Amino acid sequence: MAQQPISLPAKLINGGVAGLVGVTCVFPIDLAKTRLQNQRGSQRVYKNMMDCLIKTVRSEGYFGMYRGAAVNLTLVTPEKAIKLAANDFFRQRLSTGELKLSVFQEMLAGCGAGMCQVIVTTPMEMLKIQLQDAGRLVAQQRKFPVLHTVKLGTASPVLNCSYSVGPVSSTRKVSAIQITQELLRTKGIQGLYKGLGATLLRDIPFSVVYFPLFAHINKLGKTSEDDEVPFYWSFISGCVAGCTAAVAVSPCDVVKTRLQSLNKSANEDTYNGVADCIRKIMRKEGPAAFLKGAGCRALVIAPLFGIVQVVYFIGVGEFLLGQTPFNLYSV
């Protein structure tokens, strides 16, 4: 069966809409994941995901669970659009006119998608983590007032004004725009791409595992070659593949989160690259530290990619472009 050419604009729209819907649904769990990954054993503020969410609501209000969501929602559209469209693009280029690809070709297409998406993923994660982790540092200062000093990886005055020192701290909100401007002023464009290597180490293996696994599980939902896969099966396939890939690369996500966290309390380590981060975590916290937040990450990624795949396969982009008076669908 010959493969139909993809419509790149439609796939970009599908990926963007899917990302917006998915992130809106699971963002509070993602916030809990970031805070759990960043806390050290000696200064634990949160016991688990539910404890983190409850304490966040109590101290920061309901919208505290969506701290950093604006950055994520703004950039997740191009990120998911690039990821999903790139995978489709590479799958089509690697095929030889037949619909079926070998597992190696599917993994290669996923690798290409993972490499493309970090253009947007790295600065998005960089900004999101600063905003998500602010509440943890304030809560930590309240619980451990003697350790009230905050170290800043960038010596940034904008980031420095986020926290006041003393036994009881309060957060002076800093926007993603302020952080971006300060990073660009002090570090240049590379400031926004801190942790790029760790992001690549996470996103390439994730895509290599996720896309082939999703394709094979999703194919099981077909009763015959000509049948469409039911939307609920696409959701289940996205959840299973996403959860599996998320847990598999969770250690890389911990390293990435630690490297991209600019604000640290007095006794928290700073890291000089991926190798230094891995070495210090292993020596001071043990192997179990690499699985911090793994449960939260699985709970984020599973429904996120389930929702993404349903929206993607429904064909929102094809529908929208089909309503226009221009022939954009065939571009």
From TrEMBL:
Keywords: Membrane, Mitochondrion, Mitochondrion inner membrane, Repeat, Transmembrane, Transmembrane helix, Transport
Listed GO CC annotations: mitochondrial inner membrane
Entry annotated with the keyword Protein biosynthesis: no
Membrane topology of this protein: Multi-pass membrane protein
PANTHER family reported for this sequence: MITOCHONDRIAL 2-OXODICARBOXYLATE CARRIER 1-RELATED (PTHR45678), SOLUTE CARRIER FAMILY 25 (MITOCHONDRIAL CARRIER: GLUTAMATE), MEMBER 22-RELATED (PTHR45678:SF13)
Catalysis performed (reactions): L-glutamate(in) + H(+)(in) = L-glutamate(out) + H(+)(out)
Organism whose genome encodes this protein: Sinocyclocheilus grahami (Dianchi golden-line fish)
Transmembrane segments: 289-314
Solcar repeats mapped onto the chain: 6-93, 101-220, 229-318
Family label: Belongs to the mitochondrial carrier (TC 2.A.29) family.
Protein name listed in UniProt: Mitochondrial glutamate carrier 1
Annotated InterPro entries: MCP, MCP_dom_sf, MCP_transmembrane, Mito_Solute_Carrier
UniProt-recorded Gene Ontology molecular function terms: L-aspartate transmembrane transporter activity; L-glutamate transmembrane transporter activity
Gene Ontology biological-process entries: malate-aspartate shuttle
Free-text function comment from the UniProt entry: Mitochondrial glutamate/H(+) symporter. Responsible for the transport of glutamate from the cytosol into the mitochondrial matrix with the concomitant import of a proton. Plays a role in the control of glucose-stimulated insulin secretion.
